[in-house]
Amino acid sequence: MEYSLYTLHQKTELSSLTLKELINKLNLTGFEVDNVFEESLKTNPSTQNIRLLIKIPANREDLLHEQLLVNELSILFLFELSNVWEHLKMKYGFLLQQKYLQYSHYQSITIQSTVSNILVYQLSLENVLIHKSPLWIQQKLINSGFSVSSNHWINLLNLVGIESGHSFQGSFVSNILDQKYYVKQLIENQWVTAKEGRKILLPKGVVVIENEKQEIQNVLGLLDFVSIEEKKNEIQSNILRLETIFYDIHENPLGLNTLNTKLSLRYLRKAFLEKLVFAWERFLTLAELTSSVSVSLKKYETKNSLLELKPNKILKLTKLLLKQTLNLSEYDIRIFAKSGFSLVCETPFSFYFEIPTSRKDLVREIDLIEEYSRCFGYDQFKEILPAKELVYSKKKLINYAFIRDFFLNHGFNEVLTNSIQDQNKQTSTSVLISNPLNTELSVLREELFSKLLEVFELNTKLGLSTTAFFEIGRVFKLSSQGILEQDKLAGIFDSLILKNSLSDNPDDKNQMWFINKGILEKFLSNFGYTDIEFEMVSNSESVFHPTRSTIIRSQNLILGRFGELAPTIVQNLKLSKTVVFLFEFNLNHFKNWRMKSVIPSYKECSKYPSIVKDLSFSIKKVQNFTEIKNKIQKSLDNLKKVSFFDIYMDSTILEKINIGIRLEFQSVAKTLVAQDIEIQMEHLREILIKEFNAEFKV
Q1: Which domain CATH number covers 29?
Q2: pTM over 0.70, yes/no
Q3: Of 147, 183, 480, 575, which residue is the least packed, with the fewest Cβ within 10 Å?
Q4: Strand ranges for 457-610 from DSSP E
């Protein structure tokens, strides 16, 4: 809404307050000043007027009432309001009494209603003439951001709406009829014709007023479906019928939904039942003062016993909660009094305040604390710093630094992407942002592969040599226990990263799986996972290949996944000439403490020669190489080093793989003889056959 500083200055003294201080204070207390307008007054062109465009908080609809807004400003800026009329009306009270007695013999005609908790009031003005509004009315409308109409009655209705918060609807009629009206809710959808001939579909549940012929006269406050016409030559009547309607949108006793409450929200949101009488008095007084009209002595109203003013509510505020929330050592109870809250009771531990009926937004203790902080000033509070143990120190990220260095050293490049995604990627388990900046940043990501695939595809199409990427990031997902947050490590790469390890033979592509698998085993061993298993799985809905994917386990713990990219995605990316691999790990299983290892012990170098032996055999492809290596090291004496020097496959036997290992023996006490080594080699063959089902060629 817009408000004039000239009007505010008439009610109080603001000469000691600069415009910058005023705007900063409003912004700091929840009122956002969007624009400042400077212009001359209509009533006095030589005087400069300043208007502020202020955004009112959604929960403070009471501030749409001018009097309540001014009271709020007086609380924030600590000034006294000069209410001249409060003093004058005591002297002219006898004139007011005479005027009230003049209209004490109204004829009341009841509007029959089958709908409870709704109030309808209608009145007519006779001998209405169309003319321009006085300059002071035009100026006040301009001060509040309204455009001035050539029709005085439109201006008058808008003015009363500004001052009282009540909306009136007006319509010119040909005569005043003594007919009956009925208020009811539609039980089914119904088409109606508006005054200008436009067809309107009223949904089920809409509140309407009908006449004796069951013709709909208005819809929840929209008299004859139109407002007063702007053009004078279109008005053929000199009788103006006025209507106001009250409905408590907060409690919503009619059960209206968003489809049929648009009218009530637009026309009734500013209505306060306690200001209804003032609104009518103000309108009729201005009508008689500014135009020669007469008021019809017939009024129409609903008789509703369920709609009544409720007493002011009582809210409890715990003293300790006030201090802890605002970080105060002491508090000033007078600030609540300035806000219009009456202290009705105080105990050693709590306050009890009486809240005005206009403050429907105050329902909890925290609401009272927020009001105190606004009046006290947000910039006056001491900072509440988090405790030291809650600080996310760099020491806790040492494992992430190691992970990053590991993959960078193996030829990967790190990718950093936004954890917020486009709305188009929303699924049934997505976590939505309640107030997104736009649709492109409205959903939290559930996985890391989407962005990695985009980066991989772009680099591949550009012909760049860098085709191995990894990312460390957080993913979010809805589950039965609530929102699940996890830190993940994901990577994508193709066979080109291993081109130095492979020959030009196409059969060597079969070795890619095992070489890549060995890199991941090496990575896992740095966190103490040596007893890992690669379990083959099938999943047709994943980005992983449906038959060439594995789950990586350590006992009963699932560490992550590893496999080839799904064929459908490979086809879309046109990557038929190479094999693309993916991996993903849950970083909750890679804590810093798992990286701690025993301090290595050093031994004296042997002066005796070493003996090297090669051993070839075939095992199943799912076998863990690390487990084989560990078993060999524990089973043989004087073993200095063990390494895999060859991996090859037979195209006719796909479920098995042939490997070659090289064993180096050396003793620190004597020179080893061939007979001793052969005994250990035979013992090793028996272990490999028994525990790993190895097959040796004769």
Answers
A1: 3.30.56
A2: no
A3: 480
A4: 468-479, 482-494, 532-537, 544-554, 557-565, 580-586
